[in-house]
Amino acid sequence: MSDLKTKIDNRMDHLQTCMEAQAHLDRPEYVIDVLESVSKFWSALNEEDREYIHCVRDALDNKMEWKV
To answer: Which of 4, 17, 24, 38 suits a disulfide with 11, CB 3.0-4.6 Å?
Structure first.
C-alpha cells in the first residue's frame, strides 16, 4: 500500500505544481491528463485530496486563475 500512497502523493504534488503555475489556463489538456492520472485512484484518496481535485476541476471548467 505504501507504493500506492507514494504514487498518489507524487501525482498530487505534480498536479499542485501545475495548478500553481497556472498551467490549467495555458495547457488544459495536459492538466486534465494529470488530473485523470490521479483521479483513477479515487477510492484510495483521502478527503483532502478529493476536495482538491474538485477545486481543480472547477478551475478548469471555469478557466479561473488558481490562487493559493
So the answer is: 38
